[in-house]
From TrEMBL:
<dbReference type="Pfam" id="PF07331">
    <property type="entry name" value="TctB"/>
</dbReference>
<feature type="domain" description="DUF1468">
    <location>
        <begin position="8"/>
        <end position="149"/>
    </location>
</feature>
<dbReference type="InterPro" id="IPR009936">
    <property type="entry name" value="DUF1468"/>
</dbReference>
<keyword id="KW-1133">Transmembrane helix</keyword>
<feature type="transmembrane region" description="Helical">
    <location>
        <begin position="80"/>
        <end position="110"/>
    </location>
</feature>
<feature type="transmembrane region" description="Helical">
    <location>
        <begin position="6"/>
        <end position="25"/>
    </location>
</feature>
<protein>
    <recommendedName>
        <fullName>DUF1468 domain-containing protein</fullName>
    </recommendedName>
</protein>
<feature type="transmembrane region" description="Helical">
    <location>
        <begin position="122"/>
        <end position="140"/>
    </location>
</feature>
<keyword id="KW-0472">Membrane</keyword>
<feature type="transmembrane region" description="Helical">
    <location>
        <begin position="146"/>
        <end position="162"/>
    </location>
</feature>
<keyword id="KW-0812">Transmembrane</keyword>
<feature type="transmembrane region" description="Helical">
    <location>
        <begin position="37"/>
        <end position="60"/>
    </location>
</feature>
Length: 163
C-alpha cells in the first residue's frame, strides 16, 4: 500500500501531537526520580511530530501528482488480512481484558494467539509466549517499576513479585 506523503505526513504529525499531549497528562515523577510516566512518550511524540512534518515537507516539495492511495496486492490476500485482523483484535482484547484478567494472563493469551496466527507452530508459539511474558513483566514491573495489572491473580501478588 502506498499513501501519499502529503496525506501521511500530517496524520503522523497530528498523532505525534496527541502523544505529546497524552504524555503531559501522565503522573509526575515517582520515587524521587527525575522523570515520570510521560517522559519516554514525550520523546516518542516529538519524534513522530518531526517525522510527520519532514514527510509532509518532502511530499510537498516533490509535488507528486500520483494517486493519494494505492492498495498493494497483499490487501487482497486472505492470509494477510487475517494477520492484520489478529493484531487489531489482540490490541482490543488486551485493552478490554487486562484490567480483569491481569497482564500475565491477557498478555500470554494475545501473544500466543498472534504468534500462532503468524507462524502456525503452536509449540514454538507457546515457548516464545512464556519467555516473552516473563521478560516483559520483569523489565517493566521489576526494573522500570511500571505497575502492571494483576487482575484475577491479585491474591498471589507476593508470589508474583520475583524480586
Amino acid at each position: 500500500m502506498k499513501v501519499s506523503d502529503l496525506i501521511l505526513g500530517p496524520v503522523i504529525a497530528l498523532f505525534g501531537v496527541l502523544v505529546m499531549v497524552a504524555a503531559t497528562l501522565q503522573p509526575r515523577p515517582i520515587f524521587g526520580s527525575g522523570y515520570g510516566g510521560g517522559f519516554f512518550p514525550g520523546f516518542i511524540g516529538t519524534g513522530l511530530l518531526l517525522a510527520g512534518l519532514m514527510l509532509a515537507w518532502t511530499g510537498w516539495r516533490s509535488r507528486d501528482t500520483g494517486p493519494l492511495l494505492v492498495m498493494g496486492a497483499w490487501a487482497r490476500s486472505p492470509v494477510h488480512l487475517a494477520n492484520a485482523a489478529t493484531v487489531i483484535a489482540a490490541l482490543i482484547v488486551y485493552i478490554l481484558a487486562s484490567g480483569f484478567l491481569g497482564f500475565l494472563i491477557t498478555g500470554a493469551m494475545v501473544t500466543f494467539a498472534t504468534l500462532w496466527q503468524f507462524t502456525r507452530q503452536p509449540v514454538m508459539s507457546l515457548a516464545v509466549t512464556i519467555v516473552a511474558v516473563i521478560v516483559v513483566k520483569y523489565i517493566f514491573q521489576d526494573l522500570l517499576l511500571v505497575p502492571l495489572p494483576l487482575g484475577v491473580l491479585s491474591p498471589f501478588a507476593g508470589i508474583l513479585s520475583w524480586r
